[in-house]
Description:
Blueprint (H helix, E strand, L loop, with lengths): L2 H14 L34 E7 L8 H5 L6 E10 L18 E3 L2 E3 L1 H9 L5 E5 L6 E5 L1
Amino acid sequence: MKSLDIEYNFLNQIFNCRDGHLNIPPIRKSEENVKFVQRDACNLPSDLGVYDCAIAANLVCRLPDPDSFLNTIHNHISPGGLLIFLSPFSWLKEYTPKEKWLGGKYVNGERVFSCHVLEEKLSPWFDPVPVCIEGTGYDDPIYG
């Protein structure tokens, strides 16, 4: 099984888990339609390109400056495209200074949740679409 097959199966599982909740055209399984890129998420180059779908898996809570990623990723997603976040939001000081954590902390005596801050920061460009990946016990949003 090639990585393209694995990625295709993963995307199909997410898109089909709510029985048509998302109106997404069928994915043409073709290597010419998929490009895997790895870059510094806090310093995305302007010539990176624009994509229909980007997956940020276990990323945001491991960045030294999550805001730098969240404030620029929209430049690389096509209109109507998807930004998929999968995160345990397990903030650790060795990766991200505590003052840059999105959540997992108290501000003025109130608990701050990473998922709420993430949704607020991305709201100028994306609308959240909650999905439940069966067997995980929690929901992760797909932003589109």
